[in-house]
Amino acid sequence: MNPKNHQASRPNIILINCDDLGFGDLGCYGSGVNSTPCLDRMAGEGLRLTHFSMAASVCSPSRGAMLTGCYPPRIGFGSFDDRPVLFPGQPVGLSPDETSIATLLKRAGYATSLVGKWHCGDQPEFLPTRHGFDHYYGLPYSNDMGRQAGREVDFPPLPLLRDEEVIEAQPDQASLIERYTEEAVRFIRAERDGPFFLYLAHMQVHLPLFAPERFMKQSRNGRYGAAVECVDWSTEVLLWELERLGLTENTLVIFTSDNGSNGRNGGSNGGLRGSKGSAWEGGFRVPCVMRWPGVIAPGEECDAPVSAMDFLPTFASLAGVDWRCGRRIDGCDAGGVLFERTGTELERTEMFYYLGEELCAVRRGNWKYHVWNGNGPELFELGTDPGESCNVLLDHPEVARELEELLTACRCDLGDSSMGMRGDGVRPIGRVNEAKPLTEFHPDCPYFEAEYDLSDAE
After folding, report:
1. How many domains does the chain have?
2. Is 331:309 a contact under the CB 8 Å cutoff?
3. Residues labelled catalytic
4. H/E element, 369
5. Least enclosed by CB within 10 Å: which of 206, 269, 320, 346?
6. Per the confidence metrics, is the pTM higher than 0.90?
7. Which of 340, 372, 395 is the last residue of a domain?
């Protein structure tokens, strides 16, 4: 159904983003060990995407790309002073000149809130409240970046923020999903008259793993399964609250993950090759479920290569606000594919895969061309070979030549560190002077005990 014909005008939008959840970690994506009844039901009531991808396979560049609709190198998020992600106290982050989903929706009259992980810069100039969010409650970076027993690298105490103020150091991580859920529910209740945008970014299942004891007792997949089940419970609480308030039919709910599983401690990428940090599908392709009763028909499935970069144009179009803003945006409005179901073609015809600032692969249709892994160029047909196991380059040299031309054009635009190229379309990352961590190091500050299922986890 065309959302413009639906009774919903400027729908509420809830975006739930997990951390390191793999393509095969939900029941509706084939998991036989993680219990996810709410998310499975949500998929049955809505749309399950089978070729949905993030724009990076690690945290900071993935999240920055999703929020801005741009490839990470375009916004300076290819490298963070030679680090793959942002660390506490770094002087860089999401530039104030970039426009986020929250900024656009705020212009359209939306109330906006981020609950959970940010990881786009921890200096005041880079925090969510400077990028369109009315409210922020959560950890500004990964949950392992605090004082952790048995770790050689010692970070300052892990900060929990409300807006721009540290309200707690080294919070009890086993209770954070519950606390995030309570905060999200309070926001929904306060903004029930809408429209509102809620971005709920869980810290799990990033290592170390934490979950309340009741989920530990019932898990069939150790701590990992317990964390997944707690996230499923959190989603159920939000959906129940929407129903109680009569907001179900006027709310688009999306559930996804920032990148693939790291492949350890019980995570699964569902038969896809590679894992977090790689340019294979196991690093980039993630679960994505959408529910919007009255617009999305129950039990729908979409195999179009939708990207998280498409969220910004799609949400802005739903809100009736211009998303181009005079700047290059790499995502496209995917509403026709996702909601109107009038076809399977996206305006964006290709997808580029970067690791840091290195251009590794390109996808167009079901063809994926790799130039990254040290074995020479490889070509895969993802429709019949989702595990990228059969190199068919010799059978289709003309396809490889066409995709190589796309890579050449992309290098000119976004650069490629493997060739020493900086693209003409790259914008600078945000940078401040005299950066410092949000919390101070004290020798007597408590450590947290990291919880893993495998001894080699880091």
Report:
1. 2
2. yes
3. 59, 119
4. strand 367-370
5. 320
6. yes
7. 340
